Structure formats: C-alpha cells, structure tokens
Amino acid sequence: MTTVRSGAATPGALHLPAPAHYNHAMQRVQAFEFNDQPWLPGVLHESITEILSRGVRWSGVFAGMAPVLRRVFERVGSDRVLDLCSGAGEPISVLLDTLAAQGGTLPEVMMSDLFPNRAALARVAARYPGRVSFAPAPVDATRVPAELSRPVRTFINALHHFPPALVSAILADAVQSRSAIVILESFPRHLPTALRFLPALTAALLVNPLRAPRRRAAKAALTYLVPVIPAIGLFDFLVSVARTHQREELEALGRGLGADYDWEHGELAYPLGGRATFFHGVPRPR
Ligand SMILES: C[S@@+](CC[C@H](N)C(=O)[O-])C[C@H]1O[C@@H](n2cnc3c(N)ncnc32)[C@H](O)[C@@H]1O
C-alpha cells in the first residue's frame, strides 16, 4: 500500500503544511522558458544559469532541508545519491554546503544530466574531493541505467520543466529501481509566495556582470544598458511559478504508482517569507 502524507511527518524537520489557499491559486501552464531553448545565445543562457545559481545560494532556500534529507538517508540506510537534471551543478552544491554547515558527513553524490555540462560539473565535483562525481554520458531521468542508479535520487529546481506525463515517468523509474526520490523546488505555484525569492534573484542579477567568470562586458551591456537579461529572467521566473507542480498533483502521481512507497510533501520556510517545497518517496522495507 502507498501512503501519502503532507506536513510534519518527518521528525525534526522544520517544515510546514502548504496553506489550503494554494489549492485554488492557479492552473498549471506548460509554457516555454527561454533558458530551455537551444537557440538562446550562449551569453544569455550562461547569465541566467549564473544568476539562478547565486540567487539559490543567497536566498537560503534550502536552509531547512538538512533534517529532511538526513531522515531519508536514515530510512533508506544509505547516503549514496544520484542527482538528476544537475544542469551546471550549482543547486546540488548549495544543498551540500547547507548540509556541511549543519555538521555531519557529506553524502556521496553523482551528478547527471541528459545534456551534461561536463566542464561545469567537473568544477563542482572538484570542490568535494572523494564525495562528489558526475556521469559524463547523458542520463535520462525517465530511464536511469541500472549501473548508475543509487539508493537515493535528488531532483533540484528542475521538476517544473516537465509535464505531468514525464513527472510520472520520472517517479515510476525511481520506484521501479526501489530508489528513494527527493524533489525540491524553490517556491510553490503561488505568485505572492514565490515573489519572496525575487530579492535574492534581483541582487544576483545586478551583481552578475561584476562577478561572472567571463564575458563581463557583454553581460553588463545586456543587464544595465539594454536589459535583455532582466527581461528574460523575469519571464522565466514567472513561467517557472506557473509550471510548478502542486502538492495534490504530485501526491496523485505518487498514489497512482501503487507501489510500496511512502510519499510526503512539505514546505520549508526561508528568509523573507519564502517557502521551498519538497516531495519525497521512500520505499518501505520489505
Ligand atoms: C533548468 S535545468 C535545471 C538544472 C539545475 N537543477 C539548475 O537549477 O541549474 C533543467 C536541466 O534538466 C536537463 N534535462 C532535461 N530533460 C532531461 C531528462 N529527460 N533527463 C535528465 N535531464 C534532463 C536539462 O539538460 C537541464 O540541464
């Protein structure tokens, strides 16, 4: 039997049940984001990724996540993690730094992506010698090869990119391999709450041309003179909010898998009134 819980089922986690008014907030929209488009010029794609990465770090969005993750490791009996849709690897790095700041050993993580950005992933892996690596070949989150599967899968700030049918395939693949799956998003599909993420993102946007590792002049021009990067960034932010999967939708997908799994959804408070969301499925011991 599958159980689905919301709220404070994980002991020690400072998480909150989602307010009931989210249920009526907005319909999910499967619109496009500029940053997903292969034709987007490299300087824009790079800028948005850098801004998002710094925004995630500065917002403290995963501050409450350590106890939730540690509890999953405890229940599964392993902290070997396959991170899916790792992108440039920064979101998992922020999560690892949050875990490190709160003490204890770091999990052993393998980052992966369907289009692996090997240079960026290698740079992130080098920060955690012996603990973090990456899969150099493409890994499809809906069909993870058995040899790469790990007892825990993570999915950070990426699930909103996928329509429900693919989310279902992603969950089903984890269930089929009896891996736990932990999904994090920086905000719920509720604009007033999601806007609490914007101050960190705006600060990251404004400093990016000064801190970017390369193409600073172009990034400055496209931020301060002709504000293409702010326009694209704001568009993608609003689309991300509209595409985020709500608690009820995820719970229904988890329930539909009919496996021997416990599913749990919750929210984690972060500074300035933000609320990150998590959804995890953990196999019951047989
Ligand atoms: C917007 S990024 C999110 C990445 C990262 N979590 C972040 O916030 O930077 C979405 C990532 O999912 C990857 N992706 C898209 N479809 C995928 C699939 N079926 N399996 C694995 N990764 C996929 C893309 O290549 C991209 O790097």
Characteristic terms for this protein:
10 helices, 41% helix, 286 residues, Rossmann fold, binds S-adenosylmethionine, 17% strand, alpha/beta, 9-stranded mixed sheet, 9 strands
Strand-helix topology:
Blueprint: E1 3-6, E2 15-16, H1 42-59, H2 65-76, E3 80-84, H3 90-101, E4 108-111, H4 118-126, E5 132-134, E6 152-156, H5 164-176, E7 180-185, H6 191-194, H7 198-211, H8 216-225, H9 228-243, H10 247-256, E8 261-270, E9 274-283
Parallel strand pairs: 1-8, 3-4, 3-6, 4-5, 6-7
Antiparallel strand pairs: 2-8, 7-9, 8-9
Helix pairs in contact: 1-7, 5-10, 7-8
The structure holds S-adenosylmethionine (SAM).
Q: What top-tier CATH class fits best?
A: Alpha Beta
What Rg is obtained from the alpha carbons, in whole angstroms?
18 Å
- Helix proportion: 40-55%
Distance between the termini: 12 Å
